[in-house]
Design a protein that fits this description.
The chain is mostly helical and 183 residues long. It is 58% helix and 2% strand. The protein has helices at residues 6-22, 32-56, 80-89, 93-106, 115-121, 132-137, 139-148, 150-155, 165-176; strands spanning 58-59, 62-63. It starts with 5 loop residues before the first helix and ends in a 7-residue tail after the last helix.
Length: 183
């Protein structure tokens, strides 16, 4: 546990102890290891909310401007969290929740970034995006698409296949910034 989180962890632990003793038993988190793991999960959830509030939506006291490319699965700038913020600002809460779900389910890989969320949302670059309107209107088609694209989603595009726009742009930038090249 991070040192800066210890005071908040102690506060949450006290609330859990009070709840356990006075309201309803919490047998699943009475062992030390389980309780610590649960507290760390709560703290991580708090950190995620703070990241969104402080880092994504606002810069200081001002609302942060977000590029429309954050919603484009063919863009290097695609980011499901920032895209969700854009949709929420527009009042499209269903789409915002769908993007948050994709982020939560697929996460962000250290090596490939948002590739899985991008490939699912962007239909692996092979058709209209799987936005919430399309998925909710025809969930069976979405399930069939997922099944048909399982290997691509699991392993990335097959060898020799065209890379996504985002991967191509990234490769070009890396080549241009290679040692010995002037920028």
């Amino acid at each position: 546990m991070r040192p800066r989180d210890q005071a908040e962890a102690a506060r949450i632990d006290a609330v859990l102890t009070h709840f356990h003793r006075n309201i309803r038993p919490l047998p699943g988190i009475q062992s030390g290891a389980r309780r610590t793991a649960f507290l760390e999960q709560i703290l991580e959830s708090i950190h995620r909310v703070q990241y969104i509030e402080r880092g994504v939506l606002r810069r200081g006291d001002e609302e942060r401007q977000l590029a429309a490319q954050r919603l484009d699965p063919n863009s290097d700038l695609f980011d499901p969290i920032k895209g969700a913020a854009l949709r929420a600002r527009e009042g499209d809460h269903d789409e915002a929740c769908w993007l948050v779900f994709l982020f939560t389910h697929f996460g962000k890989n250290l090596r490939t970034g948002y590739r899985l969320a991008r490939d699912v949302y962007g239909a692996a670059g092979k058709g209209p995006i799987w936005d919430w309107a399309r998925v909710s209107a025809n969930p069976e088609a979405f399930r069939k698409w997922l099944a048909a694209n399982r290997e691509t989603l699991r392993h990335g595009p097959p060898a020799g296949a065209l890379a996504t726009t985002a991967n191509t742009s990234r490769s070009i930038r890396k080549a241009l910034m290679a040692p010995g090249r002037q920028s």
